Amino acid sequence: MTSPSATQDSYPYQNEPIWSRSEKVIARAAFDAALGRELHEVIQQAKKMASQIQQSSDLWDLEHYLTQRRKEIDRKYDYRYSQLRHVFGKLLHERRLREEDLRGLREDKLKSIRSLAKFLAEDAA
Amino acid sequence: MTSPSATQDSYPYQNEPIWSRSEKVIARAAFDAALGRELHEVIQQAKKMASQIQQSSDLWDLEHYLTQRRKEIDRKYDYRYSQLRHVFGKLLHERRLREEDLRGLREDKLKSIRSLAKFLAEDAA
């Protein structure tokens, strides 16, 4: 009761925005759609690489490709609310999401998502 | 000059048989043929698995299969003369080599290769 964290303004993640129930629905759908599209791409690429295997080095190239993509996807698709704005910013930058997929999120969230996407675009330029 | 290892009988690997030039040719051919057949099997299986991928779990099953097979093949195909009798014993046991593939090796080597193959067969039974 006397702990500092019990006072009104001491919510430990006070810089983290709250996600409303409707925002969570929108976020989940956008996240799942982008992940599904990315997995579909990897599946198509793996099928193509496998069909073209002629020698063992092609085989291990396929293994390496799959391992790298799995790790990258694991890192990128992090569905923690504390991470979601970063995730969406990156997906927007990579054109795996469009802004309309995120319609219905609060403007403060959209602003930080757009801001990260813009930063990544400038960083890549 | 006075080191014990310089005396006539102190060859450090005295239990390792010497491989003659003609035996090395036979060993290399048998080894490469078995490895080639095993890689061909993995390639065929990878192509089959890839062609049947429907969802992401199938994709990561393929990655896991390739990683396991690569590690197993790396371990099994060890072309050091100190290891070759073990390698051939295992390949004989797995029916990846036939005794005639090893024809021309000295009888002491064939004996220890057969002996390991027999041990593995009994161990698996």
Describe the 3D structure.
Two copies of one chain form a homodimer. In chain A, helix 1 packs antiparallel against helix 2 (about 55-75). Chain A has helices at about 20-50, 55-75, 85-95, 105-125. Chain A is mainly α. Chain A starts with 20 loop residues before the first helix and ends with a helix. Chain A has four helices and no strands. Chains A and B meet through helix 1 and helix 2 of A and helix 1 and helix 2 of B.
Q: Which terms summarize this structure?
A:
125 residues, homodimer, elongated, mainly alpha
Topology (elements, then pairings):
The structure is a homodimer of 125-residue chains.
Chain A: H1 21-51, H2 56-76, H3 84-93, H4 107-124
In a few lines, what is going on in this structure?
The structure is a homodimer of 125-residue chains. With 125 residues, chain A is mostly helical.
Tell me, briefly, the overall form of chain A: elongated
Oligomer: homodimer
Show unreliable segments of chain A: 1-10
Mean pLDDT of chain A: 90
List the helices and strands of chain A in order: HHHH
What pair of chains forms the biggest interface? A-B, 18 and 17 residues
